[in-house]
Amino acid sequence: MIDTDYQELSAKENNVADNKQLPDQLSAEDITVDTVESSWAILSEVTLPFLIAGLGTVCAGLLLDVVQHWRVFVQVPEIFIMVPALLGLKGNLEMTLASRLSTASNLGLMDNPESNWKIITGNISLTQVQALVVGFLASLAAVIFKFITDGHVSIIHGLLLCTSSLITASLASLFLGIIMVSVILLSKKYNINPDNVATPIAASFGDLITLSLLSGISNTFYLRLYNQLYLALLSAAIIILLLPVLWIVTRRNEFTRDLLYSSWIPIVSAMIISSLGGLILDKAVSKYHGVAVFSPVVNGVGGNIAAVQASRISTFLHQSSHLGLVPTAESGSCGYCITKGIHLRSALLLYSLVVPGHMIFLYIISYLGAGHATYTLVFCLFYLIITLIQVALLLICTNWLVFKFWEWECDPDNYAIPYLTALGDLVGTGLLAAAFVVIEKLNNASLANT
């Protein structure tokens, strides 16, 4: 199901001057200098937000490196399963929100103050509904996966996970939603393409805010859980009672009504995929504490790059064609693989940031003495290799997924990014854990917990 209100208003805004419809397809010769950003323009707008986002993931990694030793993380290891799913909220919700608002801004839908306010309030209430549902499902998935792997589950731990996840998801979504709206409005004011900056900013704040909230809330409830069980029950009840109110507000908003019903499949699917990455993380940190500090960095950077590319392609499609019709410049026998054109150029530019970016982040982590590892040449080489593999896979998937969703008449702003960030979590955590195992096999025992 598609968001028909967005389409109708989009058509009005784009054709008001000449009362013409968008072309059914955009040919290669139609793509002019006016519609294509220069390489310098892309790099100049992307690099700083990318580095800021990377530093945000480094901070999140450093925080996870510390809190993994907290009593609540040791006694309730199921929290590790929830970490990628909750950190993935920025991909499921905030990056998707950023991509939707970026597209709306580029299409001129936010030029009118009245529609601007409706778009903002509707999307904030929508992300709150989505956050509460995903938060509950993330805690449920953690309990189920723990039961499958260990054969037992604690009801008390389940209550702790549910309450912590609900509150964390709601507060993180609210904070990040406000930040995203501010970024979009400022980008519009200063004539900056929000596709290049909104999703990296979401990534930079997302991991750190979410992990800080999860750690603090879960630790607080754990210390009080057995003596003051009613606090957890009361908190969960209050949060759950807000859901019907937010649902009604979202349903009454013309810009989010359809999304309220059509956005669940990618969000829930992405949460399950991220939870599988969390299961790998749970097992990996039990043997390699160093995985904890690098996991948010690897996953965050990869998901960030994929989200920027997805947002750019989605805006291009909205501006050049109708939902379901792929521009002729992008069609061919290669199945939407990145083989030529403007999307190949932007993908290569984003890919070029991987090695220098991760070298900076590695240096910071090493300088601060975090990671429970000796930063040998072998370790750094393996680390850079897995990040290059991860981002290459994500960029290929990005191009294919965005065009496929568009062809299937599913708005990629709402469908592509959740899957991409979730795949980034699963592939990144898996490759990182595999790298630690391989390096240990090469007799670099400094990586194993001692």
UniProtKB/TrEMBL annotation:
Signal peptide interval: none
Membrane-spanning intervals of the chain: 46-67, 119-147, 159-185, 197-217, 229-249, 261-281, 348-369, 375-403, 415-439
InterPro entries xref list: SLC41_membr_dom, SLC41_membr_dom_sf, SLC41A1-3
Entry keywords, A to Z: Ion transport, Magnesium, Membrane, Transmembrane, Transmembrane helix, Transport
Taxonomic superkingdom: Eukaryota
A Gene Ontology cellular-component term: plasma membrane
Membrane topology (UniProt): Multi-pass membrane protein
Protein's cellular compartments: Membrane
GO molecular function: monoatomic cation transmembrane transporter activity
Domain SLC41A/MgtE integral membrane, first and last residues per copy: 83-217, 296-434
Coiled coil: none
SUPFAM superfamilies: MgtE membrane domain-like (SSF161093)
Family membership noted in the UniProt record: Belongs to the SLC41A transporter family.
Protein name per UniProt: SLC41A/MgtE integral membrane domain-containing protein
Organism annotation: Trichoplax adhaerens (Trichoplax reptans)
